[in-house]
Amino acid sequence: MYEQEVADRFRRINGDHPMTPADDAYVTAQFAVLDELCATEGRDLGTVRLTMLAGLLPLPGYLRSDGAQMVPRDLFALTERAGGPERLEAWFTAHWADRATGRREWEAYLSGQYVCLHEVSPATIRRKERLTAAITAAPSAPDAGSAGWTARLHALIDELDTLEPAFTGYDRLRFGGPTSRDVCIDAMRARYPRAGSAIATGA
Question: In angstroms, rounded to a whole number, what is the distance separating the alpha carbons of residues 32 and 38?
Answer without folding.
Answer: 10
